[in-house]
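Notes from the 1:1 (GR / supervisor)

We went over the backlog. Supervisor wanted to see one worked example end to end before approving the batch request, so GR pasted a single chain during the call. The sequence is below; no edits were made to it. Supervisor asked that the structure be written out right there so they could see what the output format looks like.
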Amino acid sequence: MWQQSTSLAMIVLPIVLVSISYDNIILSIGSLIGEGELLKTLSMLRFLLHYLVVPLFIVIGVELAHRAGANWANTVVRILSWVIALGLTAIDIITRYTGLQLVPIEFAGILRYHVANLSGPPIITIVVNLFVVLIGIGIWFRLKWPWLFVGTLVSLIGNAMPSYAVGTLAGSCSELVMAISLLLTEERTQFFLVTQGETNFLSSD
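Structure output shown during the call:
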């Protein structure tokens, strides 16, 4: 799909998918590596990637809306989505990653490093998910395609669940569902562009 697509979303989306994959791999092998500097360093990278790529969902959502034919997703908005995404990334890096302190924690047999003295839910993650939920609603009405809305809503609920109570499974699984919904929506918008092009060609004839 990345080779066939001309969408900027498909340049960004693989980066997000690699980050989610790395996140889940480190979580799944934490108990095998064991507590220590190696797992802590790998976990620091896991948090860094998370803070870097989550705001990029805004870029992906705007690009998908543009490909779905939304008039508001014009060139200015597409550029603005990059500005907002990079701004949110900078905020997360400065306020949450700089001086990050991690402590080991085990839940349901999974050993991972957790942010010490974590307070409150991941606000930026939830805001980004809400934004993509709204885009999903627009694509649902425009293309009769509900799955971006469904996938993002699942991710929103999963990320809102406190990890100290339910562990990481809810968040990890919900992000996987969202990633699949983004891929399927990208495929759907490609199909939409092809059919629109054929319709315009026939109309011109």
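Supervisor's comment: The beta strands are 102-107, 110-115.
Batch request approved.
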